[in-house]
Amino acid sequence: MSVSMRSSSPNWGIAPSLTPPQLLKIGEVALSSGLPVKTIRYYEEIGLLTPTVERSQVGYRLFNPQVFNRLAFIKRAQSLGLSLSEIQQILAVHDQGQLPCGEVRQHLVTKVEAISQQIEALETLRAELRGILSGWQEQPSRHVNQTVCPNLQAE
Q: What pLDDT digit, counting tens, does each position of 6-22 carry?
């Protein structure tokens, strides 16, 4: 006599990947993501994690596993110099079901332009500092009583 090991519960045609994801507490998300609980709480409060978080009946934050992809995007975008406000704009496009690559590109182009302007300003400052240092006098004799440092206040 052969005994079947199949489950007697019906499958109802639901694929295993369509079962509800296991929800994670904020501490579990923090541990797995490497981010402090306080940071995750802040991101949730300002709406960066909106579609990946819900509240339990007693008010605990519960996250679906997709939060890790979202947190990874936030960390990468921040490492490229994007602000949380810019990241929020990008995620808003994503949350509408659109691929936000055009939005990301525009923010990065703007960031490159800003960096170029900063580099130009820093090069100007460097040239000015080199000019001051090239004429530096350790013991300037004139206007000693009228200035704090004649080397900087020379006309």
A: 444 444 344 444 445 68
Nearest to 78 by CA among 37, 121, 48, 119: 48
Task: Check if the beta carbon of residue 49 is closer than 8 Å to that of residue 43.
Answer: yes
pLDDT score for 140: 73
Alpha carbon distance 87, 62 (integer Å): 22
Query: Which domains occur in the chain, in start order?
Result: 20-134 (1.10.1660.10)
49-to-40, 69, 136 alpha-carbon distances in Å: 8, 10, 55
CA pair distance 76, 58, nearest whole angstrom: 33
